[in-house]
Design brief:
The chain is an all-alpha fold. It has helices at about 15-25, 30-40, 45-55, 65-75, 80-95, 100-110, 115-130, 135-145, 150-165, 170-180, 180-195. It folds into two domains: about 25-95; about 100-195, Alpha Horseshoe (Leucine-rich Repeat Variant). The radius of gyration is 18 Å and the shape is globular. The two termini are about 30 Å apart.
């Protein structure tokens, strides 16, 4: 194939019957890491299998360096389905149910113990992405991006990036223009440019 010329889409692999049969014999952690890696690689069928299996993984997964690397890559994928799969898996790893009650607990903990806000902001953004308490969580993270604690502001920007709604643009522009921390401003810029889940 010559280098110049019209762009040609890449061919993507497809999970074979052998892969799927092998997968059924593996523990949840191996299933999850294999399928997330396949999704990052755009293997056809990987995100569908994640959607089918992820609920059964809750309470059976743990954090590993491999999962964290795969998650970081998946959340920046040019395929929004891969980003959505990464969010579903994150909620399974930390064993958070997609319910309003879960959002309530995270918010209550963060209000009572401000040191918990960075973790809560990240996970609340993921819950909102899956349709849980979107308006309420957006309003809360919109307040936390003005918190006195830099880590709270940083992770609130990250949480807002998961929402992926047009309404978050004004939050990112506010932070990008006004936050005193270069790190926080950088995350706002990245969220505007790439890491959000905007569909436009």
């Amino acid at each position: 194939m010559p280098v110049p010329g019209h762009p040609v889409p890449a061919d993507y692999g497809k999970l074979s019957e052998h892969n799927i049969e092998w997968l059924q014999t593996q523990p949840p952690q191996i299933q999850m890491e294999f399928l997330l890696g396949a999704a990052v690689n755009h293997d056809v069928g990987a995100t569908k299998l994640i959607a089918e299996m992820v609920e059964g993984w809750h309470g059976k997964l743990h954090r590993t360096p491999r999962w964290e690397t795969l998650q970081d890559t998946a959340l920046y994928s040019n395929d929004l389905r891969v980003r959505a799969a990464a969010i579903e898996i994150n909620l399974a790893v930390v064993n958070l149910a997609k319910t309003g009650e879960t959002a309530d607990r995270l918010i209550e903990s963060a209000q009572k113990y401000p040191g918990n806000r960075p973790f809560a902001a990240w996970e609340l953004g993921m819950l909102a992405n899956r349709g849980i308490e979107m308006i309420r969580i957006h309003e809360l993270l919109g307040e936390w991006i003005h918190d006195s604690n830099q880590q709270t502001r940083f992770w609130s920007v990250e949480g807002l990036a998961h929402l992926g709604t047009d309404d978050t643009i004004k939050n990112f522009l506010d932070v990008f223009r006004n936050d005193p921390s270069l790190d926080v401003r950088e995350r706002a810029g990245c969220s505007l440019a790439k890491s959000g889940m905007l569909t436009a």
